[in-house]
Amino acid sequence: MKNRDITLHINGEECRLNVAVNRTLLEVLRDQLGMTETKYGCGTGECGACTVLLEDGKAINSCLTLAATMDGKRITTAAGLSDFGRVNHIQQAFIDEAAIQCGYCTPGMVLKTASLLATNRDPSDEEIRHALEGNICRCTGYEKIVKAVRKAARTMPAPAACGAETCTEVAQ
Amino acid sequence: MSSRILPDFELLLPQSVPEAVELLAAHRDRITVMAGGTDVMVAMKFAQSPAQLPDYLMSLEHVPGLAYVLFDPDKGLRIGAKATIAELLAQAEVKQHYRALWNAARTFATVQVRNTATVLGNLLRASPAGDCSCAIYAIGGTVALQGPAGRREVDIDDFWLSYGVTARRPDELAVELILPPPAAGSRCAFKRMTRTNEDLAKLNVAVRLEMAGNTCVDARLAMGCVAPTPLRLTKTETLLKGRELTAEVLQSVAASVPWEIDPIDDKRSTAEYRRQVSGVLLKRAIQEACGAA
Ligand SMILES: Cc1cc2nc3c(=O)[nH]c(=O)nc-3n(C[C@H](O)[C@H](O)[C@H](O)COP(=O)(O)OP(=O)(O)OC[C@H]3O[C@@H](n4cnc5c(N)ncnc54)[C@H](O)[C@@H]3O)c2cc1C
Ligand code: FES
Ligand code: FES
Questions:
Q1: Parallel, antiparallel, or unpaired: how do β-strands B10-12 and B56-59 relate?
Q2: Do B112 and A60 touch (CB under 8 A)?
Q3: Which helix (H) or strand (E) holds B154?
Q4: Which of A165, B13, B83, B131 is the most exposed place for a label (fewest CB within 10 A)?
């Protein structure tokens, strides 16, 4: 097959698409859906600008993923972290710590922070640096990014006692 | 002339191992298998001529039942063809009993790549720099291949034939890797040198030692980035067998390594540098294996 009908669930929205099989998930997000918050850096898995979260929060490089193989998958981009247009605590921490200069690496950085904090609510600096190894920043020198991740960990809302769908925080 | 743009191909998405094997038999040298795709996608984006490109790309995405990492104290460790580096790291028994492999997996690439790349893909790529390949070579094991005529197992010692070439036939799918059960006196370690952690190794080494007290009864030593495929240091192994691991023995072992390897100059290092540090890196791996107990 050269084209394939697929359904992606992007940031909670269902997208039915016909994709050329040689299109990467990154190209489909940016060029076919106009979701340009996911960035193209190297195209070869080294910089992390194209990071998205798959299913339950696994970070992957969308530049090395064929969209046609992702049928039925849930995908979160940086825009999907915000709650109804309001930045979430991770994005706010990056703003507060001025961990952004040109901003090109930021979507990948905040998503990697989300995937780290989902499994480790109180990471050490070393764990933060190990987790961010797949994300290159040419501007900040990383110090402020590590600080922002620490702040994001401190300001993380307590885990909901109920399932996410019925949780009042989300419902409000 | 690379453009980093994916060329045209037909995508095949088999739903089972037998269907995948049928497709391999039908298309043979015109088909490329893709597991995690971290090597395949980059190779296609960097292809220098159309001759290097496959007509068919067969993704294992929809083949069920191959993403396991199963440990049995009597039978060993079985790693399915779709098990990722991240899934390997999540198994406590790997850390406990196969420390060299666990350390290779932990220092491997980045979170994103570990979430996608498979352990078997690392073996099948047959790169001399493969980190899991190096660790597995020292530990020993067999690769199970499924072809139209059935299943066969190839010893890892016979698996890599030359740069990028394995004993897998074009109509065979690699289905799993089997590592031996842990033995009482067995110790292993893995070490690598890189410019930054996410870069490929400029040199890597793994050791497996069977120890009785401080005496080495048997040894398997593997080194990467020093030959067209991962390399067993069989001559150096003989200097260890039956010896007590004294400072002098370790010194003679380290001195033997540069004579046994055949590194090249490339963008990650020079042949001369690799020779200079190879013995020290091996010595440190032996010390770590014995210290780690
Ligand atoms: C940014 C980046 C960093 C990396 N860092 C490292 C590193 O630190 N250490 C390291 O060792 N490697 C590294 N790699 C290389 C790569 O990630 C590994 O070799 C990985 O293990 C390959 O697994 P995969 O599932 O992605 O393989 P794929 O790309 O899917 O396949 C690799 C090869 O194996 C074949 N193959 C795969 N599965 C099968 C099967 N079941 N049957 C038959 N053939 C099969 C494919 O045809 C191909 O030739 C890196 C790659 C990238 C892009
Ligand atoms: S664009 Fe995907 S890792 Fe750089
Ligand atoms: S802020 Fe510019 S690359 Fe990170």
A1: parallel
A2: yes
A3: strand B150-155
A4: A165
